[in-house]
Amino acid sequence: MKSKISLPWSLIILVVAGIICSATIIFFTRGFHLSPSLSISNPVPQNTPSVRAKLPVRLVIPTIHVDAIIEDVGLTSQGAMAVPAGPADVAWFDLGPRPGENGSAVIAGHEGWKDGVLAVFDNLYQLRIGDKIYIKDAQDATTTFVVSAVQTYDQNADAAKVFNSNDGKAHLNLVTCEGTWNATEKSYSNRLVVFTDRETK
After folding, report:
1. Domains located in the chain, CATH noted
2. Residue range 113-132, pLDDT digits in tens
3. Is-contact 29 38, C-beta < 8 A?
4. CA dihedral 1, 76, 9, 17 (to 10 degrees)
């Protein structure tokens, strides 16, 4: 994705309900930012663990030589998930689960940076089922995820499972751009998603 372009997924908060100190946030992807709608039906709430996982600080993917700082991002004023400031870092959506918690944590990164500069997810498409992905916290403790699927979404695809899961397991999904660059819309035609499951021993 090019610089100064918001993440391709536009996230909308659907329900905010709570009493005093407790609240449940249900969110879903409404569509690609700056491109036609990507609809989601029947979003499901994420499970909130009693003991939270530690905040992620680094993403390591040995297969494609990625070792990137993780930024925490939320929503922009336009309702899109914010993106990392530059091509070398990735962005974790901090309104969802932390990597390692039940539900689908989401991390986005750039691909195809301008002027030929390398971007963190330029080679994300090379990942295959069984490849391992590592999340490190500030104490260098590591949580391991295993690639379970690699899928390309077009602009009208239903991408509910990217941000939502209800199987009681921990997932980490990586998102970047793919396809043809549209200079008018300033967006790529597709989105590449790598789905992973937390490794259990």
Report:
1. 9-198 (2.40.260.10)
2. 888 899 999 999 999 999 99
3. yes
4. 160
